[in-house]
Structures are given as structure tokens and as C-alpha cells.
């Protein structure tokens, strides 16, 4: 088990060791990450098409994703509400940027586009399954594994060159506190949901350790536990992001820590424009630090839990 963990962690660590100084090279890495995510999600869809009794399996997927999401979200919201009262962190209306650029609709469209890629993969798998049968699905799994290794290396490189010094992260007590509460309550939710989903305790924890990073969690879980549970992890974390877009404008003025934290790892990218628009510029560094910590924690934690 540990050897399997090391094989998957190795590209992440190697990528983290690579410094990138040219903007063009960093742009290519970012494009590579995006392309890899789409390829793996497409292959995940093809693998889903290979499941027996596909209709009932997809129904099971949706039910399990909803159960997992509900349990984790209740604990997340309770923990972050408690933290909001303890920290006393408030958004300042005077700091809100008038007409600040927000990609809320574009981000939602991008999230739904990823769902569309999975659906396209299912359709391609159904069309090709009758022609190639089991050989197609075996080749799909092998190809997805190699693309996953490349993706992890690129993600490691992204994290290394994100411009976030470790000292700045550790000294931001608000961001660190928010990330800690979100991680602890998510893992507690995964542990509670494990028996409901008929999973081992470590598998339940791994399913909850995506912290909103749906493109990565679905890929890592799917590689180890199969496409069905990979789909559950994907839709659980995707639903978190979609709810965050609705929740942030409603609660950030009175409960800034809750609004920033609920988006999980996405608070440093996809939900950041919405946080800036409704919470002001003072919320931005807190959101970036919180999201960065969760993004850094998620991949090795998922891989470690699945190796137990």
C-alpha cells in the first residue's frame, strides 16, 4: 500500500521541486493542468459506461453524493459559524470594490462544463463498449493513470510557483484557523458518512478530503476506488462550490469566516472574485491563504488515507 502511495506522490513532489521563472512556461503549465483534468474526467465517464446496470449505478451515485454532501456541509457550516463568532471577523462594506470583476456565472458555467465532459465520456463509452468491450475499458484505466501522474506533477509545480511564501501562510492566523476548521469538520463528516455509504473508515475520510477541489478528488478517488466512488467524490465537491456561490453574498457581511471557509480549496481561485466583490479587499488574503492550505493538504491526505 505504501509503495502505491509513494508512486502517486512522487510526481507531486517532483513537480513541487521545479521552480518556474518565465510567465510563458507557467501559462503552459496552467493549460496543461486544465487539459489533463478534462482528459481524465472524460476517461472517468468512459469507465462509468463500463459498469453493469448503469442506470441503477448512476442513481446510486447521485444518492451517495447527496448523503455525503449533506453530512459534511452540516458539520462545515456549524464549525465555521462557531469560528465566525470566535474570530469576530467582519467584512467592511467600505472596502467592497464597486463593480469588481466577478466570474461567478463563468465559474458556474465552467463547473457545469466539467459535468458535461463526464456525460460525454459516458456516451462515448456506451458507443464504443459494444465495439471493443472490456479491452476499451482496460485501456481507459491505464491511460487515465498515466495522465493522473502528469497532472500531479503539474499541480506540484503550480503550488511551488503560486507566489505564496510559507512564512506568509503561517502568520495569517485567520486563514490558518478557517482552513483548520474546514478540514477537521469535513473529515468528521466523512467519518460519519462512511457507514451510510457502506465504506471503510479510511475511505470515508478520503472521500471528504477533497475540500471542494472536485476535479482532483474525483480523479484520485476514482483511480483507487473505481469510477462510481470517483463520481461521488466529484459531485460532492462540485455541489460545495455551487452552493458557495449562493452562500457567500448572503452571509459574508456578518459571518465572513463562514463565507470564506465554506468554499474550501476554491476560495483561492473560483470563488475568490465573489468573496472580493461582496467582502472587500481585506478578505482576499485570508481567502487565498485558506484555499492554498487546503489545496496543499488535499492530494497527499487523500493518497495517504487510501493507502491505509
UniProtKB/TrEMBL annotation:
Protein origin, superkingdom: Bacteria
Database matches in Pfam families: Lys_export
Sorted UniProt keywords: Membrane, Transmembrane, Transmembrane helix
Transmembrane segments: 35-54, 66-84, 104-127, 170-193, 213-235, 242-264, 284-306
InterPro entries per UniProt: LysO (IPR005642)
Name of the protein: Lysine exporter LysO family protein
Organism: Halomonas flagellata
